[in-house]
Design a protein that fits this description.
The chain is built from six helices and 16 strands. The strands form five sheets. The chain has a five-stranded mixed sheet. A four-stranded antiparallel sheet has the order 14-15-4-16. Strands 2-1-3 form a three-stranded antiparallel sheet, with helices on one face. A hairpin with a 6-residue loop joins strand 14 and strand 15. Bound molecules: zinc ion.
């Protein structure tokens, strides 16, 4: 694993000159991806002074991802928005909002089916997520029957928006939540001053720690992740299921963060 930084800025000419001295050619609106090494720590005080955007992230080898017995999902096909998407109408329709905090997004509890406009074309995006909904997964029914159902995973119906009829070709996976804590001591947190809850910032900062108990082939963290008004629980998938989905070319290997 390497720790990398994606650094973006609107570089002024004197800043470009300083960057050039350290071996980086940047001009105007520009971004670079560099490893976290001595050179990075040399330029960091400048980046801080200039308020350059600096996103820290891990880069894993394929072997590290493949060897991991449990992976966190950090990428997906998307297929549109939960409906109705105006004034966040889907929130009222789909969730119990009793413990929901509008400020940080924590506390949603699903009470009803998701409504979507349509399903992906046959054979495309056989597993997908909806924009704004990072902790639910939708799969085509044939994939559900072939891969998920034999593992004891349950499904929920998904309704066609306005018609209120269940789709025959897509279902939502029922993903259980673990009670076990995930201790990410190096992962920055975000506090909410409205509800006093907190969540981890969503960008992984390295391997996730492994759970003592894998409660299901696919499950959600107890903790929330997210930034601003968005909060979601991280989805974890065991190796066998992950490898199957990659082998079937449904999922991409770089959508998975290994655990250790
Ligand atoms: Zn809150």
């Amino acid at each position: 694993m390497k720790i990398k930084h994606r650094i973006s800025n609107n570089w002024e000419s004197n800043q470009s000159k300083i960057m050039q001295k350290h071996g980086f050619s940047v001009e105007g609106f520009d971004s670079i991806e560099i490893e976290e090494n001595n050179v990075y720590f040399e330029i960091k005080p400048y980046l801080d002074k200039w308020n350059a955007m600096d996103i820290r992230y891990p880069e894993f080898t394929k072997k590290e991802i493949k060897d991991s017995l449990l992976s966190a999902k950090n990428g997906s096909h998307n297929h549109g928005y939960p409906m109705p998407d105006d004034d966040l109408g889907y929130l009222n329709l789909t969730y119990d909002l009793t413990n929901y905090c509008e400020s940080c997004g924590i506390g949603l509890k699903q009470k009803d089916s998701f409504r979507i406009k349509n399903t992906p074309k046959e054979g495309k995006k056989r597993m997908f997520q909806l924009i704004w909904v990072n902790d639910e997964i939708f799969v085509d029914t044939s994939l559900f029957n072939e891969v998920f159902k034999p593992l004891g995973i349950k499904s929920k119906k998904v309704l066609k928006y306005k018609k209120e009829i269940a789709f025959e070709n897509v279902v939502q996976l029922v993903i259980p939540e673990t009670e076990e804590n995930l201790n990410l001591k190096d992962n920055p947190k975000e506090d909410c001053c409205e509800c006093n809850n907190w969540k981890y910032q969503p960008m992984p900062q390295g391997f996730y720690p492994n759970y003592l108990n894998t409660i299901a082939p696919i499950f959600k963290s107890k903790e929330y992740f997210g930034s601003g008004a968005s909060a979601f629980k991280r989805i974890f998938i065991v190796k066998e299921l992950r490898d199957k989905l990659i082998e079937l070319k449904i999922e991409k290997i770089n959508w998975y963060v290994p655990t250790k």
